[in-house]
């Protein structure tokens, strides 16, 4: 099994992220969950965006970069919502990444995708943070760049549907997401 780094959402390093990491570890993966905020997690998305604004995107990306130091180049980059964007941003600096596992948000620039890069996206349908038109455009661009991209959409689910501590939680969609994510990781 491989290495996975799992970046948290705008809420911070919450118990749901740690539980997801434990689920992946139980399947045999070595999972790293860096705290990109170095502050306690928050309870609302508004507090999360305020914390991100205070800490700054540059600091968040620097902490993500530091978390990747010493990990094998083929580490899978994964993330929840904001963390999916962080995973995608790190792709530019890690060309040998084995794959991108994106939960609740897109990530990765088509200019930084190598042909054959495996990418799996799990997204609510519709998703207030990732409008369908933008996701469709992103999907076309990544596919044109040569990514081996699979998009899973979950109709009726809320944005953070895998997180059992928020109102968006959808247990059926969450279970299906984890089954698909584990199958994706098992192929690395």
Summarize the structure.
This protein has 188 residues and is an alpha/beta fold. It is built from 6 helices and 6 strands. A 6-stranded parallel beta sheet has the order 2-1-3-4-5-6, with helices on both faces.
Overview of this structure, please?
The chain has about 190 residues and is α/β, with parallel strands linked by helices. The protein has one domain (about 5-185): 3-Layer(aba) Sandwich (Rossmann fold), CATH 3.40.50.1820. The chain is built from six helices and six strands. It has helices at about 15-25, 45-55, 55-70, 80-90, 130-145, 170-185, and strands at about 5, 30, 75-80, 100-105, 120-125, 150-155. The chain has a six-stranded parallel β-sheet with strand order 2-1-3-4-5-6, with helices on both faces. Strand 3, helix 4 (about 80-90) and strand 4 (about 100-105) form a beta-alpha-beta unit. Helix 3 (about 55-70) crosses helix 4 (about 80-90). The longest helix has 16 residues, at about 170-185. It is globular, with a radius of gyration of 15 Å. The N and C termini lie close together (about 5 Å). The model has no long low-confidence stretch (mean pLDDT about 95).
